[in-house]
Each structure stands twice: as structure tokens, then as C-alpha cells.
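Our collaborator T.R. sent over the components below with a one-line note: 'Predict the complex.' Nothing else. No constraints on interfaces, no templates requested, no preferences about which chain binds where. So this is a plain run: every listed entity goes in together, and whatever single assembly comes back becomes the starting point for the next discussion.
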Amino acid sequence: MMVLHYWRALWGVIGRELLRFVHQRERFISALVRPLVWLFVFAAGFRAALGIAISPPYETYILYEVYITPGLIGMIQLFNGMQSSLSMVYDREMGSMRILMVCPLPRWFLLLSKLIAGTSVSILQAYVFLGIAWLYEIQAPLEGYLYVLPALILSGLMLGALGLLLSSFIKQLENFAGVMNFVIFPMFFMSTALYPLWKIQESSELLHALAQYNPFSQAVELIRFALYGQLNEYSLIYTSVAFMLFMLFAIIGYNPSKGMMVRKGRG
Amino acid sequence: MNNEIALQVEQLSFAYGKKQALKMVNVDVPTGTCCMLLGPNGAGKSTLFALITRLYDTREGAIKLCGYDVKRNHLQALSQLGVVFQQPTLDMDLTVMQNLRYHAALHGIGRMQASQRIQEELERLDMYERRKEQVRKLNGGHKRRVEIARALLHEPRLLLLDEPTVGLDMPSRKAIVEHVHAMAEEKQLAVLWATHLIDEVYDNDHLVVIHRGQVRAAGCVTEVLQTTAAESVQVAYDTLTKEVRG
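Returned assembly:
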């Protein structure tokens, strides 16, 4: 019976997240417009400026738009993870988080359900983006669209767990702007989403090291390789470990006796 | 009346850092009883609710829900509990039905049973006709009714209400107060109702007056009136809260 309870609760949380997503059409559109602007405007503009040499998983010279596409999928998931974290802070301020927290299920499971729900939404967005990119003639091998699914699940979970972890630290909604400035932008720009590691190394060793150890870079590389039917084992392990660590700290953060819930005071 | 204790709070203390919010609080709520928790703002009512719902962990003292310790057996304990929080906690973008289905899923209630329970609870509160309406479009009183229906969906044995009538007009308040009192008797439900509105107290209710984190008086209304030698609950309340201030 307990398994059935968990199953129903998980679908309840996912269903709610999808319903909310459908109701908030502007959220869906803005989630798509952002990477599309990067693809159609930024990447097109830099096509000539940035030459991309042949490097795995690519077997030939590629256009900058092709290089940037996995990075933009990562961007969708990064923003989605932060959006979920924002909605957690909002739910906590508004009180609806309490409804989730007082239901008779372990807190780790409730957080994991939230995370899976958020990741499902981000995967939906990523595939719509890939579909539009396909029409723009940025096309990966057909099987790549299947192989990328597990990569999207893992990267979505990792970035969502980071969002959860941050939401356990953010006391008020207003502090969220700080997260944008200090987490999303540095993570995105100091990564392999926009330029390959060797290119970064040419300009700065420090930036190269930061980009290399940035979990977002590894998530992007995991997606990039999967999209071309290859497995980047280092990225897989790095992203998995990062996911487990973020999740563990998020669970501690939401633990009523150990984490931020206590330090936050009156809820 | 059955004397089984649905909620037992024993020697409960809690502090936010150095600020003591609750000191050695004892509260018992038997089944079939409405226990009104009276206290001014900042008295510790919300902290007590946060501890009962395990938003914070109990460090000193114990809380038992239908015999289950909230700290040690929190899943069993929470399954006995229905809550209406002070802040509205419905999802405004979803319909009444979608909100209630979400809650049913969180409590592991299957679709068929959920539909039946939702219909029962909404009909009891004259809200079934509005089940397809978006919550955002409901007025304050109707939103509260939906929250009460939601709190009762999984048939809890203890209902916690944290100032549920604040901001409502008189007829809506009266309807909710009457409904909850009737439910307590009819379903042998234990109710802990935090309020500072004295007119919500019925003569056969239990009373707990809390001030500055301490229980100043507890018992049925007549007992509290006798202890304080007061003619009315209002006078008793004023005496119990002024005494300390002065």
C-alpha cells in the first residue's frame, strides 16, 4: 500500500507542475524565446568570428550554431531549475509549501518528486527547442534525439537539485535577483556552453579551470556527446556526483531539525 | 463524549535562537472537542502549530498525535492530521477540483475514492457546484471553505485551524465557525483552533489561553471562567493576558 501511496503522490506532484506550466503559457514561451534568441541572433552573429575546430563528438567542421545548441539546452534546464527554486521560495512565502510538507511522506521523497516534476517540464522544453533547431537545419543524427533523453534527465535533475539547494538558503523572494547574478550568469558564461575548453584556455588558465570544474559544463558536455550518440563517461560521473551532493545538501537544508528551516525562524 | 486524547502536547519548549517562543506548554485535545487556542499576536500560537505540523522539530518536550510521537513516528502522526493554515495555501491558477485532487494524491487516495470524498466534503460546504472554477475567482470565504474541505479529505482525526476566519466578512465567519463545531461533534473530530476572536468560542468548547509562550489557563469554558472569576470569556482573556503585562 505504501508503494501505491508514493506512486500516487509522485504523479500528483508531476501533474500539478504540468498543469501549472500549461496555465502559465508566458513561462513556456519565455523559456523558449531565451535560447532561440541566442541561437538565431547571438550564434548567427558570431558565426564568422568564432571558428570551431574539429573536436569530439564532432567529426567535421561545424557551424557555431551547431556547437552552441547543447549549451542552450543546458541553459533551458539551468533556468528551469532556478525557476523551480523560485517557485519553491514563492510557495514557502505563500504557504503552499506547507501543504506538501505536512503530508505523510518522507521529506526527501517530496523534494525528489518536486525535482522530477521540474525536470519533466525542462525536458519538454528542451525537445521543443530541438524541434525548432531541426527546422533551422541544426540537425543531429536521428538516434541522438533518443540518446539525449537520459542525459537530459540527469542534467535536469542535477540543475534542479542545485535550485532546490539554493531555495533552502533563500529567505525571501526578493533575494532571488542575487541568485541570477551570482549563480546563473557565472555558471552559464564560465562553462563550455558558448565556447570549448581549449578556446577558454587560450585566454585564461583560471577561467579554463573554473569552466572545467563547473558542473554546468559537464552537464552540457553530457548532452553534447549524447546528442551525437556518444557517452562522455567523465561528464556522466561528474554530473551524477554533483546531483547526489546537491540533493543531499538540499534534503539537509529542508530537514526540520538540521537545516535552514530552523535558522530561518518563524515560517 | 469519548475521552480519547487526539492531541497531546507535553512540556513543550521552543526557542528561536535566544528568544524563547514556548515555555513548558501542555495541551490536550480529546476527540469530538473543539479546543480554542486564544492568545494575542506573538503569543506562540503559530510556533505551536509549526511544531505540531513538524515544520520545526521538537527539541524539548513531546507532541503526540493519536498516540504517535510527531518526532519519532512522524509519518503515522501526520496522516492523522488535517491543517488549515493562516495564509491561503491553495494554488490560485488551478481549479477547486484540481487543488483537491492534488491533496488526495499526496495522501495516497486513489482517483475513484478521491472523487467520492471530494464530492462529500464540497457538498457539505455547499461548494460542489463551484468545483470547476479557478480558485483565483472565488471570494475569501469560499477559498477558506475549499481549504477546510481539503483538510478533511483524508479523514483526519485532528484538525488544526490557524486563524482561518481572519479577513472574512461576518456571514462567512459564522458559517465556518458553525460548520467546524458541527463537524467536531458529528465526526468525533478533535479540533485545535487558534484565534484571537472571542466570539468564535462556544460554551461547550475547551479553552487554552496562551500568552508570551506560556499557557495561562486551560480547561473547558466554565472551568476557565471559574479559575479567573470572570463573567465572560472576553473578561477572562483580558485578565489572563493583562495580568502578565502589568
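Summary for T.R.: The beta strands of chain B are 5-16, 19-30, 34-38, 60-65, 68-69, 81-84, 158-162, 190-195, 206-211, 214-220.
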